[in-house]
Structure formats: C-alpha cells, structure tokens
C-alpha cells in the first residue's frame, strides 16, 4: 500500500500507479480527476499550469495531490520498448520503508500478503524522513481481476509505508517520495465492501469502475451569468437629418446600448425623429417661441420597460425604469451657455425638486450637457460649474468625470481646443454597480458632433435561468391588390348580414381583413436619399476622417498641426455641402423631366412622388384645453362639457356661448398652422434650374408648385392646370379626369400648409 503523500492506488492493485501494470491505472485516475470535486481550491494551491485538487478526508485536515501527470513518459498508452524497460528497471525505482510515530497505525498489522481493503483509512503523522533500513522492492503482482494485491510488511511488526523515488522529469513536479501528516481516505465502494468484511478476509467480489462513488459537494453550484446595462449620452449638435439618425441607430447596435440619451436635437414642438422598430423614443422639444437649439430625448430598447414623467420644463426630461433590478430615474439635462444664467438657475431648481420627490423609491442618474467648467479638470470654475457642484452636494451625487476610473477627459473638441462640459452624476448605490465609465475621445461615435459620447456600464452576476427562446412577432399588413377580394368576401360573409350591433359588424370585417393579411417581410432600414451616390459617400467619409484626425491632434501640444487639421476639416466640409447641393439639383432636374415624359400618367406619378416625401405617418393632432393648453386626458368628459355648453343639458336652446364655441377648435387650428409638412421642410432649400411654367418667376420645386405658385389654385381651370404642370407638351390627348384628380389633391394639400387655402384667388 502507499503512504501519505504518495499518489493514490489504482482500482485493481495496491501498488502506486505508474508502474508497468497497464493502462488501467491511467484511465482510472483520469476518471477520478473528472468526477471528484475540484471547486474548493485555495488561492495558494494553483501554481502555473499545475492544479491541485482536494481529496476527501475523515478528519478536518485536507491533503492535496498533483494529478497533472502520473509518471514520466505515461502520456500515451503506446510507449516505446526502451521507455517501458526503463520504467520497469529496479535501478530507476527504489522503494524505501517508513515507520510512523505518534499514531495508532492501521486497524491491524497485516501479515505478509494481506490485501488492502476498499475504503480503508491510512492514519497520518508519518515520519517525513526515510528510514535507514532499506527494504527490498515489492514484487509486481499478477492481474487477478480483483481489488487486491500482495504487499510485504516489515518483519519487526511495525506498519509499513512505502515511498518511491526515481528519475523524475522536472516537468512533472517534485519528487514522489514526499510525505504528509494527514490521514487519507480512499473513495468508498458502491458494491458494499465494508472495512470489517475486508479485515475478516471476505473480499471476493470485484470492484469495477462503476463501483467507485465519486465524492461531490452537497449541492451543485448554479452557473453564473453576467448581466450588463449600458447607458450612453451624446450632444448631437443638431439632428434634423434622417441620415444622422440612421448613423445613431447603427452605433447603438454596434455598442449594444440599453438606454441612450441625446441633447440639442433642434426639434421643435411636436416633431419626432425617425424611430426604428427595435427602439422606443420620448423627447422634450422647444416651442416655436423659445430660443433656438435645445431639445432632449431618450431612446431605449423595445424589450425594456421605461416610462416618461411629464414635466413643464423644456430643457430636461425624466424617465423611470429598471437597471438590473434597481428602480432608477434618469434625467437628461441641457444647460445653455453663459448669458442666460437665470434660466439655468430655474432649470437646476426644477431638477432638484423632481429628484427629491423621486429619491424615496428610485436611484437617480443625471446626465447631459451642463456647459459648465470645474476647477479640477479645466482649471477654472464658472457659473454653470457652481450650479453643477451645488446639485451634486444637495442630492449626494457622485460626479463620475472626477473619479479615478473615468476613462478619457475631454467631452468637447473643436477649433483647436478641448474641454469638459458634459457630465454624468449617479447615486451611491448605482456607483457600486458601475463596472466601466468613460468618454469616447477619439470621436468614433460622435456622428459629426463636436461633443464626445459618454458611456456608463452597470453590471452584476446572477444565476442563469432556464433559456426560453422567444420568436419576434411578425407584423402583418393588407396588400393593396387584396382590397377588392376583401370587399367581395365581406359582401358574402354571413356574419355581416347577421350582425345586429356596430361591434358585431366591425368584428366580421376585421376577421375578413385578417384572412387576407400577409406577413411583412419588408426591410425596416431607412432608405438613403435618391441623390446619394458613391461620390457623396466618399466625400462624407473623407470629412469624417478629417474630423477624427483633428480630435486626435487637439490632445497633442502641436498647435500648428492642430490648426492645419482644423482647416483641412473645414475645406472638406464645404466640399461636401457643395457636392450635396449639386446632386440634389441634378436629381430634381431628371425627376421633372421623367414626369413630363409620362404622358397621361404624369399627374398620377407626380402625386405618388409627393406622397413618398413623407413616409412617416402624420401624427393626429392632440386635443388640448383652451385655458391650460394641456392635452385633454378624459376626452369623453371634455366633449360632454363642451356640447353641454353649446346646447344646454336638455338640447339646443338657441343660447350659444361664443367663447365656448371657440374653446375646442383654436388649439387644433394652432396645431395645424404650426405643423409644416416634412417634404416642405426637406425641399425648402433645393436648387433646381427649372423655371415654373405657371408663373415663370421662380424655380420649379415641389414646395413652389403646391404652396407658393399664385397661378395654381383650386379655382384654376383644368386646361390651365394641365398647361402649368406641363402635361400638354407631350402632344398626347390630355386626360382631364387625371387633371381633375390632381386639382382635388392640390386643394387638400393646401389646407395643411402654412399659407392655407386662398379662396377666391
């Protein structure tokens, strides 16, 4: 048998594994290595590539054994003959006798040839010195198929512990004759072989690999999964172009943001950006009477649940939700530059009041463009910086830009200078969850803005639950060519003829429509403008690289190189602007030429093109209270009060209140006057070298034809309208029915423009 500190025995032999007995030893111990508990490793038990594993003990002490290699040259089952001879040679392996002291020894002194019982315990306190009396090496027993082997015991009656020394390769650890002072218990046997039965000699059964019971922990540790919530902020410095929002969505997808706040969108009133299906948007825009710029908003993933809190202030926005199980309120702030200090003081006071109201149930985050300078990063403290410090002190915020783990420094780089004006403030509990924070000083995700993107990564580990795959619900729509089939099926539907109420009638119609709806497989990506080509794309990329190069030079001390890169950026910027204007003019010229060549279908093609300019569905006007100018929450109650004010509670009594009659409609009228069609905004500055055929005094653009031309109005005759639109130049017979339809559409489009309908002109 082996002594403490030696390698365990194989399942069939009492000799240490590594002697030329075969591959059973290696396979057996490899099985033990995989099955026994290896999860309770101490920090000092891992050295290099050698891992030590705990073996079970009856006592409280634990011994360790290196299971990386069992013996030099035993890595493969097919070893060469010289190696096998060297391993079997007595000259290379010497057995030494050790005598224990201070221990009771094994249960009994075994006579020569007695077997080692399965599950037996070897006591500790073995002497770590080798005895001067050397015993002969034990003979290698024959394979009998049983868990027994013969080992000679010393003749003096003491308990024998055998250690083995030999020519060990330095790659496989220390010498194998090291001993420990802890008792070792081998794994018990599933076949029911108790120690008492082995003591009495009843050990005839075979203990195979299936009888080995691996020692495991009482409970299995659940695998942990890392969860991350990524929050970002960017001052977009104007976001009225659809292309810029497309770049933003690409950046959100690349960096896997959960929530993203933006400032300075330059959106006005009820305008909204293009929203992709994977994201939700809420924004706070400035009104038409306020100063230019401004506008804040928040984007979050569609699978997250965040809610906007209504407020009257135009330059900050609160949203509430959940950050890794913690209720959190996020505030997006935009402070104006110096010169408007009173408005900034009022804004910070409003943020402070909202935060104190939300602190009871939520952790807080305030992030945005404070346009302030602090003494530590910038070297001076201004008025907005004082407001920022006061806000952090009152609400116990941590300014993450001042923390040592903040990556980067400058949040604004332009015109050869760099500074820090965008800040992130979080509460103490969220600071403990923060894993990474910093600013994108390279400007890779700045989208052409002079501000750099801020990023906060919150994370913690959690137990991995059951994986449930959820398939995204496919949207369905009714194709245009299926409308006639829907009408025919609805006329023949029995449920429609049996319907007695309006709800039953609409239910029958809805079921017929659903049968003809098809899955929407169309791409949700925003289409590029028709004038966009490879030349514009290459020029835009050159301008972007010049901007990034200038940002890198700002952080260097070379002022001349910084000024040169800034001048290069301005040149490329002007080049892109001129190229875009030329491409738009060229495209519009080709478009009108193609419309005139359509002949009879020219009017239809013209209005189809006008409709494509506004792909997004127009928002229905909100019903607002005439006194408070706030959206009406209870529409039915408001309409009831309005009708009662007009006609009285018992009907029309002829006594109408003129002020009450105008209470409902002024808000809607103002909304229609403020709402400018998107196509009119997009084509306001187009340069087209085509003179209008109707008036001859202006360039022919869509906005001019629909809203500005004095010769085109609903009162114009069909012949004049056809001549003005150029439908008669082709020589074909004019289809006055198509011209009439164009005339009706012209009247409808004029009603929703700022100029309105010029009746009687």
From TrEMBL:
Gene Ontology MF term list: catalytic activity
Protein name: Endonuclease/exonuclease/phosphatase domain-containing protein
Biased composition (Low complexity): 78-92
Domain of life of the organism encoding this protein: Eukaryota
UniProt xrefs under Pfam families: Exo_endo_phos
Region Disordered: start-end pairs: 1-55, 72-112
All copies of domain Endonuclease/exonuclease/phosphatase, residue ranges: 261-451
Biased composition (Basic and acidic residues): 34-47
Originating organism: Rhipicephalus microplus
